[in-house]
């Protein structure tokens, strides 16, 4: 994929003879790094679906989320119980086409219906996940509108605050920040609250919590997200939204997610000091090793800086550990624009402005394929202040 | 599923000793009738997906619909070419989570962006598919609003007309009906324009055409729909909508749809007077036989009437044939409410009012499981005017 060849490319801030002509796409959040784990699993995670199976729209007529396969619901409860990252007892689970759809569904469910001329403001502390704004703007709804940075929200109007923890793009652990007397509701986007990315310090028990298969195990192509919801009326509205938007969720993906999450759980349950590494151990080791290499390269370059995360005791791994986010949030020291700087190195990153931050900042994916990641580190370690 | 047992149920308009206590759900549009075809196919349609496969968000970076698997695009083009029901040459294909999501995506793509205070009116000739209204109302958008019956639309304001042909609920073949000087755009919902339901009289070549795997082969649980679009800018906006709403479409479902549609096409391509029936022959025979039984029962009862469809030459089957819709649109003669009448027979139907029609009308699914359908016919044939 990445072929580093000498070329007659124009001058750029590389200090040795590596003149790569290939572009590294570190802009996207495709979690391909975990593919290697699933490759060594042989047939354990294989799903086989016959032509006549899974044909109906319906999965479980006894559940208000009638399109959710019971076996998926079971493994979702099981993995949260195993990891200890979220309460599921006496909570309602709604499955969606990725957590993107459930984000919309939760906005729909939490927005007041009776004040059509006053859309509720949806806010998130900057830097915030770049897609929240796009999703809200594309819907152009009378019920909600993008309200920008939660940290400076001072309107005396109802709001919904999105709390992303660990945060995308910067990996920080978050709490609500709005300081307003107005009525506020919360959506917790906990996509990255898994032990490979951050210590599991508590069992989250928020009103609306969003999770996704994409970040839990790396299966982004399946488009499976789930919400854990306290209030049944909110859960029902969310299920209605998914019903109206897409008449449910792919059963093939649900079956596969149930299988793979089940295999992860089985691994821990049947663990008898086997030689093979379990999923969260493998993925944590991988992300940690990448971060160590990456930090070293960045520090060596002195062009960029990257946040240092506090350590905490992880209830799941029973050890003290740092946060190792799925993305690096780089700050370009000096006056240069971070995105432009990386462009000169043929590294494609996502601009800070898209996250409500300064152009000095850029987001770079830590979970690309090995070749891409190694080349990224190589290029970063070779840059010097001009 | 359906157990017809004598019971001490209260009086109702049955004339013999059948007192069924079970409820037949003929309300939903679950196309389970075709399951029998796929059951006899053995492993030909089976998909096997390994744990490490299909992990990326991305399918084809060279396509503006980057989340669509190239093999799905290929079979979509292939089946339309085979059946001759829609032009795909020089058209853009966008895949979605069912045609429901693509319906929303097309509204988004066709609505003018620059007149936020004047949402475009979305209309469809009554009786119209009951979900259009729900989908539009749930979004509560500034860009579009539900404008009701297209036949009486007389506002001098921009509109989008949804042309559903064959129509859901009544199976009629439709053309646009709005008679207005205002600027209008069209969405053609051709979910049922397949040879098992209606003669293929022409290759449809409309601006935005929606199709779905659910109705083509009966695989509703997969949530795969596709749009065939003339204008690349409209197609791009639709793809952007699917991206923002759900970050693409399940790859497991796409893989399976590609496999199954491919098998249907292969059957015709490799056909050497084999003894096994091909999919559209099988499904057409099944729907036709059901309609013949159903019509006989309804005519015998004299309580309900059902539309008679004109015959036409089908370019695909090379024979003259009627339309055999996926639903029966029944009119209860006399003054009775059709839905209430069927309720007394423990038949659950969808009320005419939900389709913008009179309460005398009801929609009944023709594609339930064999047992359900046979019991439905049995109950209908036994009713008499009281």
UniProtKB/TrEMBL annotation, chains A, B:
Belongs to the alliinase family. Its cofactor is pyridoxal 5'-phosphate. Homodimer. It comes from Pisum sativum. Keywords: Aminotransferase, Pyridoxal phosphate, Transferase. It comes from the Eukaryota. Residues 24-383 form the Alliinase C-terminal domain. One of its GO terms (biological process) is amino acid metabolic process. Pfam families: Alliinase_C (PF04864). This is Tryptophan aminotransferase-like protein 3. GO terms for molecular function: carbon-sulfur lyase activity; transaminase activity. Transmembrane segments: none annotated. CDD domains: AAT_like. InterPro entries: Alliinase_C (IPR006948), Alliinase_N_sf (IPR037029), Ethylene_sulfur-biosynth (IPR050478), PyrdxlP-dep_Trfase (IPR015424), PyrdxlP-dep_Trfase_major (IPR015421), PyrdxlP-dep_Trfase_small (IPR015422).
């Amino acid at each position: 994929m990445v072929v580093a060849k000498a070329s007659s490319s124009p001058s750029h801030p590389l200090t040795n003879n590596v003149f790569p002509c290939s572009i590294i796409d570190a802009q996207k959040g495709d979690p391909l790094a975990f593919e290697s784990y699933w490759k060594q699993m042989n047939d354990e995670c294989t799903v086989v679906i016959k032509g006549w199976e899974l044909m109906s729209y319906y999965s479980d007529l006894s559940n208000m989320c009638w399109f959710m396969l019971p076996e998926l619901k079971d493994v979702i409860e099981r993995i949260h119980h195993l990891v200890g990252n979220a309460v599921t007892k006496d909570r309602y689970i709604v499955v969606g086409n990725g957590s993107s759809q459930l984000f919309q569904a939760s906005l729909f469910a939490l927005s007041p219906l009776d004040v059509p001329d006053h859309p509720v403001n949806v806010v998130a502390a900057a830097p915030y996940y770049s897609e929240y704004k796009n999703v809200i703007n594309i819907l152009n709804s009378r019920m909600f509108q993008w309200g920008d940075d939660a940290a400076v929200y001072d309107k005396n109007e109802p709001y919904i605050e999105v709390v992303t923890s660990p945060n995308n793009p910067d990996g920080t652990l978050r709490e609500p920040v709005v300081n307003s007397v107005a009525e506020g509701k919360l959506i917790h986007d906990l996509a990255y609250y898994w032990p490979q990315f951050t210590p599991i310090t508590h069992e989250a028990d928020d009103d609306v919590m969003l999770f996704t298969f994409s970040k839990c195990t790396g299966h982004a192509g399946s488009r499976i997200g789930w919400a854990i919801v306290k209030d049944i009326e909110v859960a029902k509205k969310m299920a209605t939204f998914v019903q109206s938007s897409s008449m449910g969720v792919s059963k093939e993906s649900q079956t596969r997610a149930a299988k793979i999450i089940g295999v992860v759980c089985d691994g821990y349950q049947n663990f008898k000091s086997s030689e093979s590494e379990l999923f969260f151990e493998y993925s944590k080791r991988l992300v940690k090793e990448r971060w160590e290499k990456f930090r070293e390269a960045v520090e060596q370059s002195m062009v960029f800086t990257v946040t240092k995360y506090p350590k905490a005791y992880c209830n799941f791994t029973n050890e003290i550990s740092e946060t190792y986010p799925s993305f690096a949030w780089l700050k370009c020291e000096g006056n240069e624009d971070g995105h432009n700087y990386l462009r000169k190195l043929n590294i494609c990153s996502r601009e800070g402005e898209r996250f409500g931050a300064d152009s000095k900042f850029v987001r770079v994916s830590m979970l690309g394929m090995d070749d891409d990641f190694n080349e990224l580190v190589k290029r970063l370690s070779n840059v010097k202040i001009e």
